[in-house]
Amino acid sequence: MSAKPFMLLLEDVNKSFEGFHAISNLTLYLDEGELRVIIGPNGAGKSTMLDLITGRTRPDSGKIELGCSSDLTRMNEHEINRLGVARKFQTPSVFVDHTVLENLLLAVEGSRSVWHALFRPLQRGQKTRVEEALETIGLKDRSHEKAGLLSHGEKQWLEIGMLLAQNPKLLLVDEPAAGMSDEETHRTGELLISLAGKHTVVVIEHDMNFVRQIARKVTVLHQGTVLCEGSVDQVQNDERVREVYLGRKKRPAVGGVKC
Question: What rounded mean pLDDT belongs to the chain?
């Protein structure tokens, strides 16, 4: 019996910009339904990696595949999105003059125009996804309020809901906790945890308290390649990670932990 294919595969990926190696021999594997957290200092290549996965830029070399057969390096952004790859940027992007519900209707898979999204009846599957998204993001009671009245955290949740309405296989989330209150941060963590299993989720984050809340496996990027992978405790205790983040001198590894 063959092994189950990875949901996302990157192998020996390279990308340079005018001689600067943003991504260097990057290899990364994600299982279906996994929640993976990516951390790393500024300039580690995190955003460039997301650009490569979504087709915003193309690698110089290497392999990027969704599932067992979709070669993302040969596709544009629109084609990759249609395959079920959705990306949330750090700054929320919602339609502030439309209601929460209308934002979800505008985002739902299959909508092609504002008129179509807001005034034509939804198909059963689309209606179900919108209702489930409202429940998941916790904004059902505010569905008829304009998005511009939401707090920063609520706008972040709404945008995640808009991505969920597209029925993604792979959800890429960039620094979701930035600018949130402690309560909003915790609720965001609970939201992302709830998505794992139904979707494969990649979260880029700097807030280590938030990382500790949500992470099962953490990948540390440095200079465009994987420096370390493991649990939160493993990566925080790894001397190479401390060197990268804090500039501490390396010491011999202790305890035989592979990371």
Answer: 88
SS3 content of the chain, % helix, strand, coil (to 5): 40, 25, 35
- Burial-class residue 118 by CB neighbours within 10 Å (0-12, 13-18, 19+): middle
For residue 226, give every residue at least 6 positions away whose Cβ sits within 8 Å of its Cβ, in sequence order, or none: 26, 27, 28, 219, 220
Distance CA 224, CA 31 (A): 21
- Out of 121-135, 196-210, 215-229, which region has the weakest mean confidence (pLDDT)? 121-135
Q: Which two tokens stand for residue 119?
A: 């005034």
Query: Residue written as tokens 């990364």?
Result: 28
Q: How far is CA 248 from the centre of its chain?
A: 30
- Count CB neighbours of 56 within 10 A: 14
Quick one: which H or E segment has residue 114?
helix 114-119
Task: Quote the pTM value.
Answer: 0.87
Closest CA to 66 of 10, 20, 23: 10
Question: Is the four-CA dihedral 119, 124, 130, 131 of positive or negative sign?
Answer: positive
Render pLDDT for 98-135 as a digit per residue (tens, 0 to 9).
Answer: 999 999 988 885 555 554 555 555 666 678 889 999 99
